[in-house]
Amino acid sequence: MDPYGELYRNFRWDVPEFFNFGTAIDALAAEPDQTALLWEDHEGNRARLTFADIREQSNRIANVLVGLGVRRGDRVIVALGRVTLWQAAYVGTLKAGAIVVPCGTALGEKDIVERAHHTGASAIIATVKNAELIGDLRNRCSTLRHYLITGSPRPGWQGLHASMLKASPDFTPVRARAADSAICCYSCGTTSAPKAILHSHAYTWCLRHLASQWLDVRPGELHWTTFETDEAEAAYGSLFGPWMNSAPIFMYGGPVDPQKELALLARYPIATLCASPTEYLIMLERDSGGGLRALRHCTSAGEPLDGETFAAWRDRFGLRIHEGYGQAETALAVANLPGMEVRPGSMGRPFPGYDVRILDAEGREASDGETGELAIRVRPERPPPLFLHYWKDAEKSAAAFHGDHYFTGDRASRDADGYLWFAGRGDAPAK
Questions:
Q1: d(CA 277, CA 256)
Q2: What is the Cα–Cα distance from 192 to 426, expressed in whole angstroms?
Q3: Is residue 87 in a domain?
Q4: How far apart are CA 115 and CA 180, in angstroms?
Q5: Where is the domain boundary, 176, 207, 226?
Q6: Cα 326 to the chain's mean position, in Å?
Q7: Phi and psi dihedrals of 427, rounded to 5?
Q8: Same domain, yes or no: 333 and 283
Q9: Are 55 and 147 in the same domain?
Q10: Do residue 273 and residue 408 come from a single domain?
Q11: Residue 104's pLDDT is what?
């Protein structure tokens, strides 16, 4: 019996014609005390939010944005780190029908200014730290008219909390088609210029499958993804994926610290974890035998997982780390799913709904063991989590798609059993 093969053959995306993630939050809020988020910062401050809290906060933010004149299709920069308002700001922007442009707190002034200018953003929601940082925003971005700050109001910035208190707690999410634009995120390689990647509302819908099949989240069980809020991993692990499966999220509002992560895993009933291979390695080095309390399933992303870290984590904690591969453009395209044989060093097998090929320089299917370019078939059926196109870059968009495939630019090989092995990261899709 091959559970993976059966899942892969029978899988269907089943994306509805209309979808706004805000409606999913509103439905979850029908149970008023259902936990949505547990949060702790580096100073030990803690918070618990229910789905009813997220519904009200996101409704108020949507009303604030609409009241300022933000309209459907406008771009809104959400420059928030791992704070309790991050999810509500994201969801509120989507409810209003605007396009979210996520920017993490680690970005410099130049990066945020360039993203605001490039997307033609009309509003920004930022922390005090970012508000102090972005001094040149008004001079560089003529489209940006509304400046919202999560702290106290200051010259040129409107206090978000005060504005939310004045706004109505009721809001009906904009009725969006699943194919409509929803998120414009940025990704860049080591040598290429940043790429603005446009995703649809269908992307947010499809992350339910990534979370249930790979992250292995379950209703009521706590999930933790450690990545920064402007990274693709945060979108699928700290927002859309778990909540589409009625699973609460844990978020640590502090700097990356594997020793702190171990302490949190010992304190909270975190059942599923997604972290980088580097974090797993350092946690192994810092572990003093405190235990992981409730952890039962681990995944890794962001960089290749080496076999030594995999074996050491398995031997120490009795847990396998399930590696996955994806780009900001693709969501998860290859993965080691629960129940599959995990081959250390392999990215796994194609995720259900993705037809992944290894192509040679002539565009032909590579033989087993031969290294080629990793490509995803988009005909006859295009995976709905795949990005729409690169924002304002028709040339780069055209270069990414040829014939029946999206070319990732990354190189890999395939063994005789269909497992894929990463060989090198490209910075741009091949022509």
A1: 13
A2: 9
A3: yes
A4: 21
A5: 176
A6: 11
A7: -100, -10
A8: yes
A9: yes
A10: yes
A11: 83
pLDDT of residue 215: 98
Count Cβ atoms below 10 Å from residue 259 Cβ, excluding itself.
Answer: 12
What is the C-alpha separation between 105 and 111, in angstroms, rounded? 11
Assess if residue 237 is contained within a domain.
Answer: yes
Residue 169, domain member (yes or no): yes
pLDDT at 189: 54
Cβ count near 1 (within 10 Å): 4
Q: Parallel, antiparallel, or unpaired for β 46-50 and 75-79?
A: unpaired
Note whether 286 and 259 are within 8 A (CB): yes
Q: What is the pLDDT of residue 430?
A: 37
Where is 334: in which H helix or E strand?
A: strand 331-335
Task: State the pLDDT at residue 311.
Answer: 96
**Helix axis angle, 51-68 to 86-95, nearest 10°:** 60
User: What is the span of the domain harbouring residue 213?
Assistant: 189-431
- Number of separate domains in the chain: 2
The burial class, CB within 10 Å (0-12 / 13-18 / 19+), for 111 is middle
Q: Residue 298 maps to which CATH number?
A: 3.40.50.12780
Spatial distance between the Cα atoms of 129 and 126, rounded to a whole number of angstroms: 8
Single out the residue of 21, 134, 56 nearest to residue 148, CA to CA: 134
Q: Name residue 408's amino acid.
A: T
What are the mean pLDDT values of the chain's consecutive 10-residue runs (431 residues total)? 89 97 98 96 96 98 98 96 96 98 84 90 88 72 91 86 97 98 83 84 98 98 96 96 98 91 96 97 90 94 93 96 96 96 94 97 93 96 97 94 94 96 68 31
Residues 280 and 309 sit within 8 Å (Cβ to Cβ): yes
User: Residue 351: its pLDDT value, please?
Assistant: 98
**Cα separation of 98 and 71, whole Å?**
6
Q: Is residue 82 part of a domain?
A: yes
In this structure, the answer to whether residues 147 and 193 fall within a common structural domain is no
Are residues 125 and 248 both part of a single domain?
no
Q: Which of 176, 211, 229 delimits the end of a domain? A: 176
Q: Tell how strand 405-414 and strand 372-377 pair up.
A: antiparallel
Residues 60 and 92 sit within 8 Å (Cβ to Cβ): yes
Q: CATH number of the domain at 157, please.
A: 3.40.50.980
Q: Of 247, 229, 21, which is closest to residue 105 (Cα–Cα)?
A: 229
Is 165 found in the same domain as 216?
no
CB of 130 closer than 8 Å to CB of 55: no
Are 124 and 208 in a shared domain? Answer: no
Is the same domain home to 144 and 227?
no
Residue 368, helix vs strand vs coil = coil
